Amino acid sequence: MNKGKFITFEGIDGAGKSTHIAYVAGLLRARGMDVVVTREPGGTALGEKLRDLLLHEPMHLETEALLMFAARREHLAQVIEPALACGRWVISDRFTDASFAYQGGGRKLSLEKLAVLENWVHPHLQPDLTLLFDVPLEVARARLDAARAPDKFEQEKADFFAATREVYLARAKQFPQRFRLVDSTQSIEKIQKELEELLSSI
Ligand SMILES: Nc1ncnc2c1ncn2[C@@H]1O[C@H](COP(=O)(O)OP(=O)(O)OP(=O)(O)O)[C@@H](O)[C@H]1O
Ligand SMILES: Cc1cn([C@H]2C[C@H](O)[C@@H](COP(=O)(O)O)O2)c(=O)[nH]c1=O
């Protein structure tokens, strides 16, 4: 049995990831793939409880990083690994790149500590494709302000998101084989066209 592929969507809050997930899942299903759509933090019953704490309770930055990886361990064991093993494709709204970007960039937690957690929780698995939706902070902020009340992360200041975006862009340079940068200032229709072309090659 062929293993499925693992696709992750990343970007700062308001970049537009969630808008495009259903579209990409639809494209892949039309090509006959069996697709699982999931998210982080979350994706399991325990993970969703942790998500609620992570998005709304103040906590020490290391507690936050550890809970992100605890939720991820459960997500891998219950959802991601079993799905890939039986040939399904997994699309996750965020994965470990978000921990490097938010906890490492935004909160300034040591990237070495995060690498230790990554190596513990998923020493061998990496996404086959990571779509990084990139927008200037002001564009993301304006979109979020128009869309919903902010959670704990979305209330952070511009310098937090500038550092988060910087780490995302640095990781895209560090891992060019799996990252694809999507200019998310474009219209939704233009981005969909770009995604369609991009996915035709995997
Ligand atoms: N290319 C676009 N042009 C204009 N508006 C957009 C575009 N992409 C997304 N939006 C709008 O911006 C808002 C935020 O989009 P979305 O929820 O997809 O962002 P996100 O990256 O998933 O954010 P978060 O990570 O905080 O969930 C939504 O109201 C969405 O309709
Ligand atoms: C996986 C992960 C997520 N975060 C942050 C990023 C976002 O602000 C929230 C999730 O909200 P979304 O609307 O579903 O994008 O969590 C993080 O800080 N670290 C992580 O590892």
What does this structure look like?
- The protein has 202 residues and is an alpha/beta fold.
- The protein has a single domain, classed as Rossmann fold (3-Layer(aba) Sandwich).
- The chain is built from eight helices and five strands; from the N terminus they run E-H-E-H-H-E-H-H-E-H-H-E-H.
- It has a five-stranded parallel beta sheet, with helices on both faces.
- It is globular and about 45 Å long.
- It starts with 5 loop residues before the first strand and ends with a helix.
- The mean pLDDT is 96.
- Residues 11, 13-19, 143, 147, 184, 187-188, 191 line the site of adenosine-5'-triphosphate.
- Ligand LXEULUCI is lined by residues 13, 39-41, 68, 93-94, 98-99, 102-103, 153.
- Keywords: ATP-binding, Kinase, Nucleotide biosynthesis, Nucleotide-binding, Transferase.
* CATH fold field value: Rossmann fold
> What portion of the residues fall into strands of 2 or more residues?
5-15%
Largest sheet: 5 strands, parallel
CATH homologous superfamily classification: P-loop containing nucleotide triphosphate hydrolases
Number of strands: 5
SSE string, helix = H, strand = E? EHEHHEHHEHHEH
Oligomer: single chain
Q: What is the architecture at the second tier of CATH?
A: 3-Layer(aba) Sandwich
Fraction of residues in helix: 55-70%
How widely separated are the two ends?
18 Å
The number of helical segments is 8
Shape: globular
Structural class: alpha/beta
Contiguous uncertain segments of 5+ residues? none
Number of domains: 1
Give the neighbour order of strands across the main sheet.
2-3-1-4-5
Q: Give the bound compounds.
A: adenosine-5'-triphosphate, ligand LXEULUCI
> Any idea of the CATH class?
Alpha Beta
Rounded mean pLDDT score: 96
CA radius of gyration is 16 Å
